[in-house]
Specification:
- By secondary structure, this protein is of the alpha/beta class.
- It has 8 helices and 10 strands.
- It has helices at about 50-60, 85-100, 115-120, 150-155, 175-180, 185-190, 210-215, 235-255; strands spanning about 5-15, 20-25, 35-40, 65, 105-110, 130-135, 160-165, 165-170, 195-200, 220-225.
- The strands form 2 sheets. It has an 8-stranded mixed beta sheet with strand order 1-2-4-3-5-6-9-10, sandwiched between helices.
- Strand 9, helix 7 (about 210-215) and strand 10 form a beta-alpha-beta unit.
- The radius of gyration is 17 Å and the shape is globular.
Length: about 260
């Protein structure tokens, strides 16, 4: 019998009823646990931050599932209509998909705004035993600085193109309004599960002070990994390998 492929695409229905796509990385042996991975605001599941972590986790014996939020990458839906609330729903649906495939116990990794999404989703996911955020904001509204020059026009027109990191995206005003309805710090304080905060001192998108605030709000057991370098995306391969090793150590200690 041929060996099962170590990666496979798995689709599921997201919170807005669009068809979402993810890639499941299987370990060679029986999985010791599973990890769901949520990418940053304008990224997708194939960004190196996600792919390198997923490979490292599967090599270490975990099933790792990275997926595209609604309107990103290979997933359906309209990015312009996205909200953080919708991202939270997508995380919940993705976690349910992992459970349906028989993987557990489950850990969560969220990068940047994806980190805020997993922290907010955790209250609805009782099977999640451990969480990690990378470069996540403590205030969901922090993301507004990325398109500050276009926000007034977005709010007045209801839907407009905004420039983020040199790229153009279409958003609706509902995205901005929805941000105010979420209290990420309160969600962290209510986790009741092991939480690892990862942040780089040279992150010029989400400052390290945001990570400090998240860590301070969390109850034990918790840990704060503060790197001198790494930036927001941990693009350097050496730092990406260090990041993966540290996260694997965390899950080895907390995901059983």
């Amino acid at each position: 019998m041929p060996a099962r492929p170590r990666t496979e695409k798995i689709q599921f229905v997201g919170g807005s009823r669009a068809s979402l796509t993810g890639v499941l990385h299987r370990p060679e042996q029986r999985a010791r646990g599973s990890v769901l991975m949520a990418h940053c605001f304008t990224c997708d599941k194939d960004i190196h931050t996600m792919t390198r972590l997923a490979k490292g986790l599967s090599d270490a014996g975990y099933a790792a599932y990275r997926f595209d939020f609604t309107g990103r990458g290979e997933s359906g839906g309209d990015f312009a209509t996205k909200t953080l609330s919708a991202n939270v729903s997508d995380v919940v649906r993705a976690a349910t998909t992992l459970i349906e495939f028989g993987f557990g116990p489950c850990g969560l990794i969220g990068h940047s705004l994806g980190g805020a999404a997993v922290l907010l989703a955790a209250e609805r996911l009782k099977t999640v035993r451990s969480l990690v955020t990378i470069g996540a904001p403590s205030d969901a509204g922090h993301v507004r600085h990325l398109f500050a020059g276009d926000e007034d026009r977005l709010l007045s027109e209801g839907r407009a193109e905004v420039t983020i990191g040199g790229r153009t995206f279409e958003l609706e005003a509902g995205f901005v309004h929805d941000l105010a309805s979420h209290d990420v710090v309160r969600a962290v304080g209510r986790l009741g599960r092991p939480y690892l905060t990862v942040h780089s001192e040279d992150d010029n998108v989400v400052p390290v002070s945001e990570g400090e605030r998240l860590h301070a709000a969390a109850a034990e057991p918790k840990r704060f990994l503060r790197y001198e370098t790494g930036g927001h995306l941990f693009s350097d391969r050496t730092m990406a390998a260090v990041l993966a090793a540290d996260i694997i150590d965390w899950f080895d200690d907390t995901l059983d």
